[in-house]
Amino acid sequence: MKPTKQRRAPTERPQEILDAALALFVEKGFAATRLDDVARHAGLSKAAIYLYFDDKTALFQGVVRQAVVSNLGTVEAMLAQHRGPVAALIPRILEFMATRIEETPLAAVAKLVIAESRAFPEIGRFYLKEVIGRGFPLMESLIARGIAQGEFREVDPAMTVRSIIGAMLLGGIWRTVFEPIGAEKLDIRATARHHADLMLHALQPIPKASS
After folding, report:
1. How far is CA 138 from CA 40, 61, 86, 143, in A?
2. What letter would DSSP give residue 181?
3. Which of 151, 154, 187, 199 has its CA 20 to 30 A from that of 92?
4. Tens of pLDDT along 164-182?
């Protein structure tokens, strides 16, 4: 008797579509990826994709939410649950980001946004709103909290956050752009620890001169 083909539950299909889309977006870029290719890669019909995503842009947004935005929830939880000095959170957050860069497609998605936003500004605007627009204020509030508690000297929280994130951005670009063409492998977790140490020393209050 011929075995019947196992049907996948409809609840599994969005994830299968997102996994297929991510693989193709990273391999081919946004412009060159067709929904027909995504459907074929996922083992579904093109019509099935439209049951869950309106178009290719909506599909890309789903990929970003899964690969990047979900990590912001973890950072938000870190901040909400933390009690005591906030300085301890900076190494933890940078270590978490480094782990995500090394173990997930986070850096590949960020590279894709950088590469495609000029031609498809809606991609950049979505990332700016959902990732940068949500993540930066989160970190700025952490720096402001440290200043208010006397842990950090008076600095511009927005500029400080850009300095903190800069090292992780370099790590992601290095991993996805330069390592594939022969650059030496960068230990992103070690980079995160080193950068956290530098930032914490730079943020220390300046001792008042004795009169």
Report:
1. 39, 21, 13, 9
2. G
3. 154
4. 999 999 999 999 999 999 9
Sequence-distant (≥ 6) Cβ neighbours of residue 201 within 8 angstroms: none
pTM summary value: 0.85
Region of residue 170 (phi > 0: left; psi between -120 and 50: alpha; otherwise: beta): alpha
- Structural domains of the chain in order of their starting residue, each with its CATH number: 11-53 (1.10.10.60), 64-203 (1.10.357.10)
Cβ density class 47-86: b for 16+ within 10 Å, e for less: ebbeebbeebeebbbbbbebbbbebeeebeeeeeeeeeeb
Q: Encode pLDDT of 99-109 as tens digits.
A: 999 999 899 99
User: Exposed/middle/buried for 159, CB within 10 Å: 0-12, 13-18, 19+?
Assistant: exposed
